[in-house]
Amino acid sequence: MSGRTPRTENFVKEFSRHGGQDRFRAQTGLPLATYFSGLKIRWLLKNISGVRAKAEAGEILFGNIDTFLVWNLTGGPNGGIHVTDVTNASRTQLMNLRTLSWDKRILKVFGIPEQILPEIRSSSETYGAAQLEVIRDVPIAGILGDQQAALVGQACFKKGEAKNTYGTGCFLLMNTGKKLVQSNYGLLTTVAYKFGRQPTRYALEGSIAITGALVQWLRDNLKIIEKSSDIEFLARTMKDNGGVYFVPAFSGLYAPYWKATARGVIAGLTRYANRGHLARAVLEATAFQVREVVEAMEKDSRIRLNTLRTDGGMILNDLLMQFQADILNRPVVRPVIRETTALGASYAAGLAVGYFKDTGELRANWTVDHTWKPKMDRATRENFYRKWKKAVTRSFDWVE
Length: 400
Description:
By secondary structure, this protein is of the alpha+beta class. It contains 15 helices and 15 strands.
C-alpha cells in the first residue's frame, strides 16, 4: 500500500516478453506475478551477495513456512526433514501440477538450483516425528496450504463444492475433482489436496487481494471507525450505498483481472455522501469482488455453484453476509466451526494416523450455523452490479 514497486516486477516483465503473462500457466496453473515465491528466490539469488554460491554448494535451503516448521520440529540442523506438500509447492510457481514435481525447465529459466528445494510429499502422511522435548516423538502428519486447508475443513470433497475465506483478502476455492482445469477467466489452477496415495484432487482458486484489509484501512488510515467490528453499525446507518462504490485496487487487481497497473478508486461521490455510505461501500466491495470470481469460476468449471460455504473473520458481519447472498442470488452458509483452516490441517493429520476413517466421517462432522438467503429483487441486484463493474474500469491503467 506504500506505492512502492514490488522488487520482482521487472522479472515479471522480463519473462512475459516471451510467451506473455501466461507463459508457465499450463505447467503451474499460475500467471507470472510478483505474488508467487519462485521469482522471489530468483531475486535473492541475484541480489544478495554470496547467496548463489551457497545455494550451488548446497549450504542453504529454501522452503515455505510449512517447510521451516517441519525442519525445526524434526531437529533443524541436527537431522531436520526438508519437505513440503503438494499444495504449498503449487504456490511457488515452480511445481508441475501434473507430475507433482519441481519443473526442471522453469528452474533453469529462473536460474534456481533444485538442490535448495524441499522434497514434495502428499498433504496427509507421516513425515517424521517431533524432536522438541515437550512433544517428542509426536508424528507430524498433515501439511496443507492455508486455503486448501480451509477447503478440507469445510468438507468440500465433492466436485463443484466451494468455500470462500473472508480475511484481509478473499480466497475462493472450488473442488474440480481429479480433473486439472485450466482457467480462461483469470483464476488460478491449483492442487486442492492429496491424501496419501489417493489420487490428487485439483481446484480452481480466485484470489482477491483487499477485502478485510479495506476495513482496516478505513480504521487506521481514515480513522472513521475505532475498531473493525464498528463498520457494520456505521454501515447500517444508511439504507444503501448512496451511489458510492469503492474499488480497493491498492496494489493492483487480482482475480479475475490480474491488472498490476490498477489503483484504488472511490466513485459516485456527491455532497450527499457521508461516512455511512463509505462504510457500506467498503463492505459491498468484498461482495462484488466475490461475485466476479464466482462468475469466472462457473465459466471455467462449467459447474453452477449452488451454495457458498464461508469462513474467516468477516463472516461475523451479518450485513455483509446478507448482501453477499443478495448479490450472488444464492444461499451463503456459515459453519458451526469457523476456524476451518486449522480444522482442515488436523483432518489431514487425523486421516494419516488413522484417527479418522475416511472423508465421509469428516463430511459428517460439518454442520451449519447460519444460512443467509437472497432477498434482493433482480433489477436492484443487477443495477448495483452494473455500476460496480463501471467503477472497476475506472481503476484500470492508473500506473503508467
